[in-house]
Structure formats: C-alpha cells, structure tokens
Amino acid sequence: xxxxxxxxxxxxxxxxxxxxxxxxxxxxxxxxxxxxxxxxxxxxxxxxxxxxxxxxxxxxxxxxxxxxxxxxxxxxxxxxxxxxxxxxxxxxxxxxxxxxxxxxxxxxxxxxxxxxxxxxxxxxxxxxxxxxxxxxxxxxxxxxxxxxxxxxxxxxxxxxxxxxxxxxx
Length: 169
Description:
- It is a single chain.
- By secondary structure, the protein is mainly α.
- It has one domain (1-164).
- It is built from eight helices and no strands.
- The longest helix has 30 residues, at 37-66.
- The mean pLDDT is 92.
C-alpha cells in the first residue's frame, strides 16, 4: 500500500486523471437509466476539469509553496523564489478548474486555454533541460513530461466532443 501511495504522489497528473475517470464511471453507474452520448461526454469532461485542472493544480500549488525544496529537487532544479510564484499561478488555474466543473461551454474553453499553454510551455522547458542539462529527474523527464503534453490535448478533444454533442437541457 505504501508503494501505491508513493507511486500516486510521484505521478500526480496521472493519478488525478485516473481519479477523474473513476468518478465518471461512478456517475455513469449511479444512473438508473443508460446515459446518452452527450451526458457521458459531459460527465467525463466535468470530472476531468475538476480533477486534472482543479485538484491537480491545487496539488501543484501545495507542492511548490509548502514543499518547494522537495519539489525543486524532484524536478532537478535549484530552489528559487520562482517556486512561490509558480504555486500561486497554479492556485489561480485550480480555482478556474474547480469552477468549471459544471460550467457552460464558454467558461470551459477559457479554463483549458491557460493550463494548455502553461503545460505545453513546461514540456518545452523540460525537453530543453533534457537536451542541454541532461536533466532526466522524474519531475522533469518522467510521467510529468508526457502528461504535460497529453493532458491539454485530451482537454481540447473533450471540449470538441462536447461541442459536437451538446446536452439538451
């Protein structure tokens, strides 16, 4: 069990993604009737926004603000005041993710743009660090690198799917 907790803590973006899927599945299973396609997409996207943007960025805030030394070491970077700044940026993104949980399409579009730019930019910085500084620490070149690329792409895919399959309320 301790190994599972360590694995989850070292791969938070993947952990939050799995939790979002599990909550989507629980919502689907709790419905007394079968869900239509639009409702399934809505459920997956809602939980994705809550977990992968809201709670994942709360986690990022906590790690950078309160555990900055540990986080910098995990990434393979020296500690700096930038940790605190990054933490508060993460908190702002988190608030948007939490609010967007059951929000309308326009707010969701705005919610995924900022973390997408941030995460793709971070992936570029991680890649640059891999090539120039040979930084292959888990927090730079591990799961976080790949989720920095894939999670925004998944967010835009879910947004497109919801746009193509709107809920009729």
